[in-house]
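S1.2 Input.
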Amino acid sequence: SGRKARWPPPGCDPEVFSSAFLVDGFNLYHSPRAASIPLGGRGTKWLDLNALCRSYLHIIGGGAELAGIHYFSALAKHLEATKPDVTRRHQAFISCLEATGVTVRLSRFKRKSTRCNVCGARLERYEEKETDVAIASTLLELFHLAACDTAVILSGDSDLVPATRAVQRMFGGARVLFAFPYGRKSKELAQLAPGSFQMTKENYARHQLPDPFVAPNGDVTRKPAAW
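S1.3 Output.
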């Protein structure tokens, strides 16, 4: 019919924002590293994403309630030959996120062959695949299932513009906001999603996982030394 879905859905309290957070793990990854420099080298990569996301609910307003946190990333297994503990550290972090109630969605890296434009040599490199599509499809799925009425995307990646526009077309009244990682911001996304905001290095530092982290099942995970 071309009509927008009624939003919020019948039966929902229009005064309370049910808010889902979608975390672009790769867009966020280098931000805590950059944040540690002006903090005197104090590492902030051991992020408690559950606590961090909750700390921004007041910005959304309307007595916002958390409707879930979805973390998107991929394991860099192709780096294990030169950095043997890179995936182990990432998996340890992921296990802590899952123990705090975060839903983890992993994509993959794909090898790609290219030729140098100068010397013609063949070069092999790896590209992270599927994460943007996974975020976009989850965003649409959440609104289609009426699982939230506000989605906050932790990313500054303008590749998410089409998905955001699709939600705005399809679900009248639905809100998409961007929480820009420290040191990253997209003017295009900020204009597209009014109410978007910048995360701070200080808030990273305030919302770190315990070290050691003890999961509800008793498993103990220690923060990597370099984090």
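S1.4 Remarks. The longest strand covers residues 65-73.
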